[in-house]
Amino acid sequence: MKILVCITHVPDTTSKINFKDNNTKFDPTGVQFIIGPYDDYALARAIEIKEATPGTTVTVLNVGLADTEPTIRKALAIGADDAIRVNADPADSFFVATQIAEHAKTANYDLILMGRESIDYNSGVVHSIVGEMLGIPSVSPVMKLDIEGTKAKLAREIEGGKESLEVNLPFVAGCQEPIAEWKIPNMRGIMSARTKPLKVVEAKAVDSGYKIQKFELPPPKGAVKMIPADNVAQLVTLLKTEAKVL
Amino acid sequence: MAILVFVESAEGKIKATSIEAVAYAYQLGDAVTAIALGDVEKSELEGLGKYGAKKVLHAADAKLNQPVIQAYTNVLIKAMEDEAADILVLANSSLGTPVAAKVAVKTGASLASNVVSLPDKSAGFAVKKSIYTGKAFAWVELTNPKKVIAIRKNAVDIKEVSGNAAVTPYTVQLSDSDFAVKTLSTEKATGEILLPEANIVVSGGRGMKGPEHWSILEDLAKALNAATGCSKPVSDMGWRPHHEHVGQTGVKVAPQLYIAVGISGAIQHLAGVNSSKCIVVINKDPEAPFFKAADYGIVGDAFEIIPKLTEAIKAVK
Ligand SMILES: Cc1cc2nc3c(=O)[nH]c(=O)nc-3n(C[C@H](O)[C@H](O)[C@H](O)COP(=O)(O)OP(=O)(O)OC[C@H]3O[C@@H](n4cnc5c(N)ncnc54)[C@H](O)[C@@H]3O)c2cc1C
Questions:
Q1: Complex ipTM, two decimals?
Q2: Is the minimum distance from the CB of B276 to ligand 1 under 6 angstroms?
Q3: Fewer Cβ atoms within 10 Å of its own Cβ: the N or the C terminal residue of chain B?
Q4: Domain A2-221 falls in which CATH fold?
Q5: Is the Cβ pair A153, B184 closer than 8 Å?
Q6: Which domain holds residue B214?
Q7: In a domain, B41, yes or no
Q8: pTM (2 d.p.)
Q9: A220 interface with B at CB cutoff 8 Å
């Protein structure tokens, strides 16, 4: 079986977000980058399938500039066999999805996994666009994925519950917990990742019809009003008359 | 400018988030047609006129009673064509977002999800979307003639206008390939208010000490007509179902009121709630980081405060 896992290179979840150049660019100063947490679930499930199914290969793909290579190496250390970096700034969902589809259309993957969304732009659409471009089904957010021959059984989270689904391979899945437990690379993985193949390819030009004009931070939160524990009635009054939310 | 709005339903009723989508479309341009799929009550469809829909297409084919993403996508593409719609508006959801993406690919439309406000048309057509899990926003220009916009809850104030919408049956052609993803079964909480749609959320953390103590939060939620949520460790430990987990890796909520009980306020939890209009934090530790993100706070033991709060709410209702 051939599995492709698409990963993002995103600010650590504890990062403070700032912009520069008159709010037109993300400011990476002091920010630590990680594999997107949802992508990390996808990767972990891919490695589990590989371990359970002899002959399986896992390729990771990232659309990013050279600074994403440590993140890609981490995915190799976790257990992927080889990697592809599409050398471009991941400008928007349509652009990224086009690059993934472009690579996948001739590579015959049985399974294309990624996170349900990236934690920078949160659009949550790349898996659906890739599926549509390749003409294969896409399902997200997937919280359970079991391969049964040429089919897969999936659980997809919906508002207030979940659906159990069945789909033939190949397909695209946007993953989330509890599909697998995050994997931490061990020393052997880190050593072997250094020599695993990482191929750099150039991007295909795309007009996405999507242009970021500027970024904005939310207004700072006002000071919290503390209410004594023995006076919950005061809280109710404030919620009614001041915050007007009751 | 003709606008099509995809409205979602559950148990025959239009979802609150879809009513917002209709209101959004009406404030964007007045030629609004809504489309509903599967089994929906007629009065619900007519009632969309109150939010600005002139016409409602109803594709009542029983095969569409279950929300099947590919089938819904193809129906919407056809309806956009039939209505000569340039814009499709829908709610960001487990159904709406993938459908939006697929329709955009097929129709060559510019796509924006997680949109939080009406477009700014002063220079092009720009929408504001939530990014970095609620920590920032981006203004994005949608440059293609066709546009697909998936809106987040509270993107617009709902204004009521008068009139019923004319409901027209809409016949669809479905093919087997629309059902390539087979739905085997659906498990869904019924009768309770769903977290992503709730105006008020009561959420519990590890400070609740165990699933057996959730009844006091449920009582409070009931008094407030609220949904219940939880922190990640709570769902990881199986105290609560996964779909109640709020935060960076769970559900992102934007209610009028979020009440956090026994939750420390880790940055990953805050990421899922920072778009709430008003946040109340109840925690026994005065140093809990959540207080910094709150509008109102009470330092104290949840097990004493929550039942009293429930009584106080009941007293004013
Ligand atoms: C990549 C990543 C993603 C994550 N995503 C999420 C996410 O989506 N959502 C999420 O919630 N977390 C997420 N986390 C975990 C997050 O970092 C915190 O660990 C988690 O939110 C803590 O949950 P908690 O507040 O319930 O528990 P704790 O941090 O243990 O806090 C319990 C709180 O209860 C208070 N308390 C105890 N007893 C009482 C009492 N009797 N009365 C009142 N208060 C009491 C304590 O003072 C304490 O503040 C993520 C972490 C990582 C690394």
A1: 0.94
A2: no
A3: C
A4: Rossmann fold (3.40.50)
A5: yes
A6: 195-316
A7: yes
A8: 0.94
A9: no
